[in-house]
Design brief:
alpha+beta; 10 helices; Beta Polymerase, domain 2; 2 domains; 51% helix
Length: 247
Amino acid sequence: MGKYEFWKDWKRKTKLEESAIESIKIARKLILAELPKEQIVAIYAKGSFVRREMNEKSDVDTTTIVKESRYLKNLKVLEEKYLHEYKPQIQFSGYSLWELKHNKRVLSGKKLRASPSRMVQHLKHYKLLYGKQLRKEEFHQGPPKGHLRGMVFAFKNIFLPGYKEKKFGFSEVAKQVFWLVENEQIWKGKNPPYHWKKLAKSIKDKNHIIHDALRLRLNPTKDKAERKEFIRKLKVYLSELEKLVKE
C-alpha cells in the first residue's frame, strides 16, 4: 500500500494550505503508528482542505477505514491526544467495513459521526492518503430521502439544541447547513457540487438559506441580531424540509 499526496498537483498554495499539508502528513503518520497496518484499508482526507475552501478556523479532517470495528477506539484516542497539538487542528474519524456495509454505527467509534451511508455518499469526493481507493457500489448507500430525513433529525435534535446549550458554536451550525442543503438538492434529483461556493451559485433563489450560510461563512459575524435571524430562517427551512420528507 502506498502513500498518496494529491496536493502536489495544486498550484499557488496558500500559507494556510501549506500548514494544512504538514498537519495532514502528521495525521497519516500518527494513524499508521497507532493502528496495525493490516487493519487499515484506507486513509482519506476530506472537508474544506480537499475543497480548497479553508479559513483560519478550519480543521484538517481525516477518515480512516478499518477492517474490524474494535480498532475505531484507536482513532478516538488519537483525537483526544492530538486534537489541539497542531495547527490547523487534526480531526481523526473513521468507519469499519462492517459499518459501511450495514449502515450501522458501533459504540467504539467517535460519538458524533455521520451515518456510514453518508460517508459512502461522499466517498468519491474524498482524497486518498494511504491504502486502496474504495468504491461506493461496494457498500450501503441509503436512499436520498433517508439522508435528508437524517439531516433534519440531526438539526432538530442535536445541532440546534446543542447551540442553545452552547455545546456548538454558531459557525459550526452554519457549516452544517451546507450539508443539509446538499442533501435537499440530491433528494430533488440534482447533482450538487462538492464545493460550498459552487453549491450556492447553483441555487438561483437568492432567498434560499444557502446564500445566508455562505455569506456568514465568508464574513463571520458576532452580531446577535444577525445570528438570531439566521437561526429563525433555519428553523423555517427545517419545517419545510420536514414536510417534504413526510410526503
